[in-house]
What we know:
Helices cover 0% and strands 41% of the residues. It is mainly beta. The chain has one domain: CATH 2.40.50.100. The chain is flat, with a radius of gyration of 15 Å. It starts with 20 loop residues before the first strand and ends in a 6-residue tail after the last strand. The mean pLDDT is 86.
Amino acid sequence: MTGGFSTPKKDKASKVSGGMAVKTGQILVRGVDTYKAGVNVKGPGTLFALCDGKIYFTRKKTSRGKLRTFVNIKPTVKKAK
């Protein structure tokens, strides 16, 4: 492991877990192809939040039978005064 070339990158991973509260623009997943953008999430490689809310994950099969994991956000309702 001289020079650190065989050390895996630590910045490419899931940054959140299910049930966590997130803010608009917060990075959820970076550089991982196993997660896809779901509801209120956008981005091709780096997934980020489009609104404030809580994270939840769903798994769906594609038309070819491959299982995909989607990152979604359930928006929080702001109370008007």
